[in-house]
Specification:
The chain contains five helices and no strands. By secondary structure, it is mainly α.
Length: 105
């Protein structure tokens, strides 16, 4: 297939015949005669980030001691498997005035 496309490209550059006739004779699509060949690059896999669970157990989350953003980070690191709904619930129980969409801290 690739050889026929390369031959068709040479014929097209040499103006042997119109593209539709070349494509029909070589049994390839007209698009393949115009399309540039793609160079394949090596796939670089992202390096996974380490899970940081270094949260002191004596740290208590409260509105008087820290802001909402800091409390959210501490709770998220302490409970890695929790989603946003469980974290939202923990913040509400700790006394923060948070909404599911917006924090008012």
């Amino acid at each position: 297939m690739r050889q026929r496309v390369e031959l068709g490209k040479k014929w097209l550059v040499g103006e042997v015949a119109p593209a539709c006739h070349i494509a029909r004779a070589l049994l390839v699509s007209r698009q393949s005669l115009y399309k540039a060949r793609r160079i394949r690059r090596a796939v670089v896999k992202p390096v996974p980030r380490p899970v940081v669970r270094e949260v002191a157990s004596d740290v208590r989350v409260s509105p008087e001691s820290m802001q909402v953003e800091d409390a959210l980070v501490i709770l998220a690191r302490g409970h890695v498997a929790y989603g946003y709904r469980q974290l939202w619930s923990k913040l509400r129980r700790a006394g923060y005035g948070v909404n599911r969409r917006r924090c008012s801290g």
